[in-house]
Amino acid sequence: MKIKVDHLTSKEFSEYADSTFAKPVKMSLGIFLGIIMIVLACLLFTGKGGTAVKPLFITAFILAALYILSGAVLGIAYKKSGLSDTRCAYSLDEDGMDIKMGDLSGDLSWSYVKYVKETKNLFIIRAKGSQFIIPKRCLKSAEFREFIKNTLPEEKIKRLKYTIDKETEDNGD
After folding, report:
1. Higher local confidence (pLDDT), 40 or 116
2. Number of other CB atoms surrounding residue 86 within 10 Å
3. Average pLDDT value for residue range 47-70
4. Which of 19, 67, 112, 162 has the most CB atoms in a 10 Å sphere around its CB?
5. Mean pLDDT over each residue of the chain, to the nearest integer
6. At what angle do helices 22-46 and 53-81 cross, to 10 degrees?
7. Helical H runs in 47-172?
8. H or E stretch covering 34
9. Quick check: 8 and 86 in contact, CB under 8 A?
């Protein structure tokens, strides 16, 4: 099976980030912000806040700013990553995959793959020290799913819960 990836869009990069490292950070910030806001509301409602209210307001403001800035940081990371203009070609068979990224090339045996994860618009192949992001728009999703299912052990296949977009499914399959 041959796959060509012309580039990764910012939307695809955000989905990749949310499925790997960004979502836990955003959730933690949101949870801490929620807890502080509840404590603040209780202190203000009971009138027993005293000197604790001001530091809590400052903490809430900082957490809210970090939560909002996390989206901007992802945009900066996307621009610096070079993924918007990186061209990749993958050739997959029963033994593994041949990878070409710009001037670099190599091969990866399936035994080194930790997992393959499916999100709404992506397939992410994780190997030790590397991740390969394949947008569904670049392949026939059902064919790729079947290939992975027949090639990798079941414990190496992760599928996130998502709603299949009818338009995406029609274009991809």
Report:
1. 116
2. 14
3. 74
4. 19
5. 77
6. 160
7. 53-81, 141-151, 166-172
8. helix 22-46
9. yes
> Tens digit of pLDDT for each residue in 86-123?
788 889 998 889 999 878 888 999 999 998 988 888 89
> Is residue 15 a contact partner of residue 22, using CB atoms and an 8 Å limit?
no
Report helix, strand or coil for 49.
coil
> Which of 103, 105, 143 has the alpha carbon at shortest distance from 123?
143
Contacts of 59 by beta carbon, 8 Å cutoff, 6+ apart: 36
Pairwise CA distance, residues 101 & 171, whole Å: 25
Average pLDDT score over residue span 40-59: 75
Q: Is 18 within 8 Å of 122 (Cβ atoms)?
A: no
Long-range pairs, 124-127, Cβ under 8 A, ≥24: 124/16, 124/19, 124/20, 125/97
Model pLDDT for residues 2-38, shown as the tens digit of each residue = 888 877 787 887 777 777 765 666 677 777 778 877 8
CA distances from 11 to 47, 78, 81, 121, 161 (A): 45, 10, 14, 9, 18
